[in-house]
């Protein structure tokens, strides 16, 4: 009770402080409430999925750690997602990879998947008031190799074309069922350890495959194409590079996915937002945290995330931006990993929504550059955390670090009992 009183008092002080700079804290909280983040289901089970022919994780991605409690069944994934979302303010989405289908113990190959394999997900999500997004899965399959949609061999390429076409069909049915577009992401690992004899050849093949895949028009799903710098074992050449997908996205008006772990480490993802918004219809983000490489560390509140969030808000186009998370850490409690990453992303967005942007723009227009820099610096220590605590309180989720106790309890009662 005293705690709640403190939170409310601190909020009132913060509200006044922000108002003095022309910022409306109530409006910022209302805007944050509208931002649904797309949670990646694959943090629950280390990207294993539920195919009954599953092998090791391939495609140049890697999960490290063996913390106990990995979800081993669809029910366990759902239970973990319910637990995680109970500790996160707001209403969010869930992103499924194609390997998470409800295959009922049968072997259903990737070129055979159908909407019926995701029907139970659609119904469950509806019960939870949650919308679904979708991803085709090119990795961890006997036909994955180093080349899928860019493979010169007809048999392999056509298999993956068929898989991806089916994923679009499933996404369309999901979108219809949930009466809200399903955002489908296409990422393939295709590449080569050494420099190929022709870089052009495989990109030409990939362009043709994509044209065939996208030849069917759908109304209830949206296509996103995700580039990458390199995968492990595929260091010299990635067919689906950023230049490739940026070109394809602009030419064909597809959504380009920016995964924050898929660029050179010193490259600013924030700087790309305004350019993409000028030339592509919408943007999809995979918020991740690269450490030395695309290591998919748990997202934390760092400068890169803050910079990106500020650009998203400043662009005035939040309705054209989809924000998903993409990391997988098996070294710590997996539900904790979700909660840390989602709350960090929301905190960054809140700080961006609380930026005294009207005043900063006014200084800029008047060429008051010292004043602009001074306010940018001072804005960093404004009492945004009091607004965040109030946002959590309003959403009836734990304030501050108190969520740790809930996760510890869930671990003791549930995940520690998994074999
Ligand atoms: C599971 C993958 O991480 C995901 O599908 C893809 O988006 C990626 O980022 C691969 O590095
Ligand atoms: Mn990604």
TrEMBL record:
InterPro entries: L-rhamnose_isomerase (IPR050337), Rhamnose_isomerase (IPR009308), Xyl_isomerase-like_sf (IPR036237). Binds 1 Mn(2+) ion per subunit. This is L-rhamnose isomerase. Its EC number is 5.3.1.14. Belongs to the rhamnose isomerase family. Its cofactor is Mn(2+). It catalyses: L-rhamnopyranose = L-rhamnulose. Signal peptide: none annotated. The keyword Magnesium does not apply. Pathway: Carbohydrate degradation; L-rhamnose degradation; glycerone phosphate from L-rhamnose: step 1/3. Keywords: Cytoplasm, Isomerase, Manganese, Metal-binding, Rhamnose metabolism. Mn(2+) binds at residues 262, 294, 296.
């Amino acid at each position: 009770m005293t705690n709640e009183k403190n939170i409310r008092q601190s909020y009132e002080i913060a509200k006044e402080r922000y108002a003095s700079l022309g910022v409306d804290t109530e409006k910022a909280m209302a805007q944050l409430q509208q931002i649904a983040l797309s949670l990646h289901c694959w943090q629950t089970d280390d990207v294993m999925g539920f195919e009954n022919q599953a092998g090791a994780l391939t495609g140049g991605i890697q999960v490290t750690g063996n913390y106990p409690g990995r979800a081993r069944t669809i029910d366990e994934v759902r239970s973990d997602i319910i637990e995680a979302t109970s500790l996160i303010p707001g209403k969010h989405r869930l992103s499924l990879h194609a390997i998470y289908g409800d295959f009922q113990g049968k072997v259903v190959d990737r070129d055979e998947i159908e909407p019926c394999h995701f029907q139970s997900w659609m119904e469950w999500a509806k019960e939870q008031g949650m919308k679904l997004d979708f991803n085709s899965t090119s990795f961890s399959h006997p036909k994955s190799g180093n080349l899928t949609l860019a493979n010169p061999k007809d048999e392999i390429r056509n298999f993956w074309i068929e898989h991806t076409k089916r994923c679009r069909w499933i996404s369309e049915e999901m979108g219809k069922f949930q009466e809200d577009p399903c955002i489908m992401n296409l990422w393939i690992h295709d590449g080569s350890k050494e420099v190929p004899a022709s870089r052009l050849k495989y990109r030409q093949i990939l362009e043709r495959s994509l044209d065939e895949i996208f030849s069917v028009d759908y109304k209830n799903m949206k296509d996103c194409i995700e580039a990458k710098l390199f995968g492990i074992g595929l260091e010299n050449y990635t067919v689906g590079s950023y230049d490739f997908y940026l070109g394809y996205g602009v030419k064909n008006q597809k959504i380009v996915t920016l995964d924050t772990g898929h660029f050179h480490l010193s490259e600013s993802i924030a700087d790309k937002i305004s350019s993409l918004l000028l030339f592509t219809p919408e943007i999809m983000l995979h918020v991740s945290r690269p450490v030395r490489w695309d290591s998919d560390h748990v997202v934390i509140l760092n400068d890169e995330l803050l910079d990106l969030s500020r650009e998203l808000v400043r662009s005035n186009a939040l309705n054209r931006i989809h924000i998903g998370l993409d990391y997988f850490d098996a070294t710590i409690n997996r539900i904790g990993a979700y909660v840390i990453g989602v709350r960090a992303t929301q905190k960054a967005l809140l700080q961006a929504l609380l930026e005294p942007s009207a005043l900063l723009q006014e200084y800029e227009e008047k060429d008051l550059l010292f004043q602009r820099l001074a306010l940018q610096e001072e804005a960093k220590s404004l009492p945004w955390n009091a607004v965040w605590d109030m946002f959590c309180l309003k959403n009836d989720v734990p304030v501050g670090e108190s969520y740790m106790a809930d996760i510890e309890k869930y671990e003791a009662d549930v995940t520690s009992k998994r074999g």
